[in-house]
Amino acid sequence: MLKIEGLKVNVEGKEILHGIDLEVPEGKVVTLMGPNGSGKTTLIMTIMGFSGYEVTSGRIIFKGRDITHLPVHERAKMGIGLAFQRPPVIRGVKTRQIVEIAASVRGKEVDPYELAQEVNMEEFLDREVNLGFSGGEMKRSEILQLMAMDPDLLLLDEPESGVDLESIGLLGRAINKILGRNIEPVEGKSIKELKAARKKSALIITHTGHILNYIDADIGYVLIKGRIVCSGNPLEILRTIEKYGYKECERCL
Amino acid sequence: MSVKKIELEKIGIDQEEKERAGSYMQVDSGVLRCTVKQEGVEIYPTREALETLSDAKNYLWNALEKDDSLGDFSNGYFIVVRKGVKPLFPVQACLLIEEEEKQHVHNIIVVEEDAELNVITGCASVPQRGKHIGISEFYVKKGGKLHFTMIHMWGREVEVLPKTAVVVEEGGVFISDYICLHPAAKIKAYPTVYLNGRGATARLQSITVSTPGSYIDLGNRVYLKEAETRAEIISRSVCFGGTIIARGHLIGEYPGVKAHLECKGLLLSDKGVMHAIPELEGRAKDLEMSHEAAVGKIAKEEIEYLMARGLSEDEAVATIVRGFLNVDIIGIPEALKRELDKIIEMSDSAM
Ligand SMILES: Nc1ncnc2c1ncn2[C@@H]1O[C@H](COP(=O)(O)OP(=O)(O)OP(=O)(O)O)[C@@H](O)[C@H]1O
Ligand SMILES: [Mg+2]
Q1: Minimal Cα–Cα distance from A247 to chain B, Å?
Q2: In chain A, what is the straight-line distance between the N-terminal and C-terminal CA atoms, in Å?
Q3: A43 CA: nearest ligand 1 atom
Q4: Environment class of residue A8 by beta-carbon count within 10 Å: exposed (0-12), middle (13-18) or buried (19+)?
Q5: CA pair distance B319, B314, nearest whole angstrom
Q6: DSSP state of A186
Q7: Domain coverage including residue A24
Q8: Hey, is B293 helix, strand or coil?
C-alpha cells in the first residue's frame, strides 16, 4: 500500500528525517512511536505532501505509484486520509461543509448528520471548522472527516491525545469501521477469511498506545531523532517503552 | 428607456415585484416606477414628496448638514412607513445610470414609531463611466426598525460619492448591509449613524471587493449619544488589486455604552493596498468599546488542510475567501450569491 524508501526531509533548511525506510502493507495497521520532536509528524506531513517539508532524497510509493512530488489534493483523491495532530481553524466554513467536501471529492455522497452521530459530533456540524473546539473535539472532528473521505490509507497523528477514555472507544470503533475491521463472522466466511480480505491500512502515531486497546495493530516502528531504530510487534514495543523508556528501543539497532 | 442591459436581480431587484412591499426605480434622472403594494407604506419621488407632503421638508437636510456645493438633485426616493406598520416584504429601490454623465439623488427614509421596514437598494450603471452622487437621510423613530441593504454594481470608471446620515431614536434599531462586488473606479463613503435615544442600536456590515484600478475608501461611523446604546461595525474586504481603505469610527458619548468594531481584510495581490483604519473615541466613563483589525493573506496551512480533504489549491482558496466574506449572515439575493461565487473564483488567478 505505502512504501517509503530512503526518505530524507528538510524543514526550514534543517534535515529532520535522515533516511527513512518504512512499509505499510495492504490491510495492515502500523504504529509509529517515538519521543517528542523525533520527526513523526514530519514524516506524516511529508507523506501527505505538505509544503515546508522538502524531500531531499528518497521516494514515497503509494499503490505502486511514485507520489513523492504529487500535490496534496491528488494524494487525498488517491485515497490517503490524514487526521491532523493540530488542525487549523477555517473561519466561515462549517464542519458540515467540510464533511460534504471530503465525501464529494472521493466521489461519495454522505449524510453528515448520520456520520456525526457515530462520533458524537451532531452539534458541531453548524460550527465553523475547529473554531473553539476543545482538544478532544478536534480529534473527533478529524475522524468524522475521514469517515466521509473513506480513504484506503489512514494517517492518524495521535488520534487519542486529549480524548477522554469513553470517546477513545468511540473513535476506535469509528476508525475500525473505516478500516472495515469491525467485522463479525458471517455465514460462509470465517473471521480468518474476512481478515485476509482486509484491504485498508493505517499508520498510527501514538504516545500512550491507548488507541491500541480498540484497534489491533500488526507492525510497530520506533522513530528516534529522525531515524527508524526499531520495528517489530507493536504491543511488545509499547510494553518495552513503558517499562524501560526509549533507551532500550535504541539498542534494538 | 430600457433597463434590460443590467441584470437587475443581481442588485436585489425583482422586476415582478412578487415579494415586495413596493418599488422605486429611477434611470438617470427620470422616475421609471414608483409603486406601493402595502398599506401604511408610502413611496414618492423626493421632489414630489416635498411638494405634496406637509412634513416632508422637515426631513430634508436635517440629519445631514446642507451642502450647497453639490448643486440640485434630480430626484431620489422618499419612503415612509407609518406608525406600527410592519410589512412582511421589503421595499426595493433601484438607481441606474444609463446614459447621463451624472446622477444626483436625494433619498429619504422615515420609519415611524414602532414600524419596521427592510429596504433593498440596488445601484448600477450601464456605461463604464459616470458619476453618482447619492445623499441619504434616514430617520428611525422610537421603537422602529430599519434594515437597509445596499448593493452596488458600478461600471469600471464610475465615480461614486454618497453621503449618508441616520438618526435613531429611543429603542430604535438600524441594520445596514452594504455589498460592493463590482468595484467602481472610485468610491468614497463614510455614512454616519447617530444613536440619539436610549437603547438605540446599530449593526453595520459591509463586504467589498477591489480589483486593479479601483480605489475604495469606505467606512462607518456611529455616535453613541444616549444610555444603553449599542453599536457593531463589521467590515470584510478582499483585495485582488487596487486600494481598499476600510475605516470605522465609534464615538461613545454616554457612560456604559458598548460598541465593537471589526475590520478584516484579505490581500490577495502583491500590487494591492489594504489599509484598515479603526478608530475608537471614548468621551464618557465606563465605556466598553473594542476593535479587531486584521489584514493578511490566507494562511498556507489552511489551504493545505482543505487540500488534504481533496480540494485543489484554487478550490481551497475560493472556499476560504467565501467563508471569509461569510455572506450567509447577510440575506443577500440568490442571484447575487452566484455573482459572488464568480468573483471568488477570480481568486484562482490572483493567487
Ligand atoms: N517549521 C519548523 N521550523 C523549525 N523546526 C521545525 C519545524 N517543524 C518541525 N520542526 C522540528 O522538527 C522536529 C520534528 O518535529 P515533529 O513535529 O515531526 O515531531 P514529532 O515526533 O511529531 O513530535 P511530537 O511527539 O511532540 O508530536 C522538531 O525538533 C521540531 O521542532
Ligand atoms: Mg507530532
Answers
A1: 35
A2: 26
A3: 18
A4: middle
A5: 9
A6: B
A7: 2-252
A8: strand
First and final CA of chain B: distance in angstroms? Answer: 41
CA angle, residues B319, B325, B329, in degrees to nearest 5: 110
Strands B230-239, B157-160: pairing kind? unpaired
- Domain count of chain A? 1
Ordered alpha helix ranges (H), B18-75: 46-52
Instruction: Give, for all 351 residues of chain B, the pLDDT tens digit.
Output: 345 556 777 777 777 888 889 999 998 888 888 999 999 999 999 999 999 999 999 999 999 999 888 888 888 999 999 999 999 999 999 888 888 888 899 999 999 999 999 998 988 888 778 888 899 999 999 999 999 988 888 877 888 889 999 999 999 999 998 988 776 778 999 999 999 999 999 999 998 888 888 899 999 999 999 999 999 999 999 898 899 999 999 999 999 999 999 999 999 888 899 999 999 999 999 999 999 988 888 899 999 999 999 999 989 988 898 888 865 555 566 666 776 676 666 654 443
Q: Phi and psi dihedrals of A142, rounded to 5? A: -60, -45
Residue A18, domain CATH: 3.40.50.300
Q: How far is the CA of A65 from the centre of ligand 2 (A)?
A: 26
The predicted structure's pLDDT at residue B327: 57
- For ligand 1, atom 19: residue with the closest CA: A37
Query: What are the residue ranges spanned by the domains of chain B?
Result: 5-298, 299-351
* Alpha carbon distance A237, A242 (integer Å): 9
Enumerate long-range contacts of A240-243, CB under 8 Å, 24 or more apart. Answer: A241/A33, A242/A209
Q: What is the 3-state secondary structure (H, E, C) of A12-72?
A: CCEEEEEEEEEEECCCCEEEEECCCCCCHHHHHHHHHCCCCCEEEEEEEEECCEECCCCCH
Smallest CA-to-CA distance from B120 within B302, B300, B331, B271 is with B331
Q: Which of A58, A102, A53 is nearest to A77 (CA)?
A: A102
Kindly give the distance from the C-alpha atom of residue A82 to the centroid of ligand 2, in angstroms, as a whole number: 13
